[in-house]
Amino acid sequence: MRTDPVPLVVRVVLAAGLLTLFLLAADAAFGQAPPGPPSPAYYVTRRIISYPVLLPNPSMTPGAVSTSDTAIVCHRHTATVRPTTDATKAKVYAAYGVVRHREGDFEVDHLVPLELGGADTITNLWPQPASPKPGFHEKDYLETRMHVLACAGRIPLDSAQRWIARNWADAFGALVGAWPR
Q1: Which of 18, 35, 67, 156 would bridge with 117, disulfide CB 3.0–4.6 Å?
Q2: Whole-angstrom Cα distance, residue 18 to residue 9?
Q3: Rounded to 5, what percent of the chain is helix, strand, coil?
């Protein structure tokens, strides 16, 4: 048996490096500079984790909770805690770099939903797009599902709050299942 003096791993790393150099040269040849550091809008428009879904920038929208009391959450109507003003929504869009959009493209959404005890604060708001799916319509369905489960005692409220704040797409996949088309 003959041993190769250059291990396979080394050859793969070298090939990847050459491919990177080729792609950078091709970008330069076509007048496109390599991308710089991401803007805040990057996280709304390009951040993809686990699924083809857009998530908020966790440093800008970590999520915030006003209560973890199941008795309060399960027996109040969210209209009583929904004072998000147009001025606040404008601040959220500006923070994420969304300058213009058509009606229905985005919704200023509560990362931890009000129906799960989420707070109506800037640290819990982000401009969630309608597409790609799952977008804000599908997240609304998840929020209702998690509310029902928490109020039925099938999932602890504080766990639901942490789960949806950390990665609502994972919660959607686990609790709802298949992605809508």
Answers
A1: 67
A2: 14
A3: 50, 10, 45
Q: pLDDT tens digits for 91-148?
A: 998 888 888 878 888 889 999 999 999 999 999 999 988 877 778 888 989 999 999 9
Which three-class secondary structure state does DSSP give residue 48? Answer: strand
Please, how many CA atoms are within 13 Å of residue 84, restricted to the half-sphere of its CB? Answer: 23
Please list, in sequence order, all residues whose beta carbon lies within 8 angstroms of the beta carbon of residue 27, skipping any fewer than 6 positions away: 33, 34
Contact 158, 40 (CB under 8 A): no
Cα dist. 114→9, 128, 149 in Å? 50, 15, 15
Q: Which helix (H) or strand (E) holds 138?
A: helix 136-151
- Residue among 111, 117, 106, 108 at smallest CA distance from 81: 117
Per-chain mean pLDDT for the chain: 75
State the number of CA atoms in the 13 A half-sphere of 168 facing the CB. 33
In tens, the pLDDT along 48-70 reads 333 345 788 888 899 999 999 99
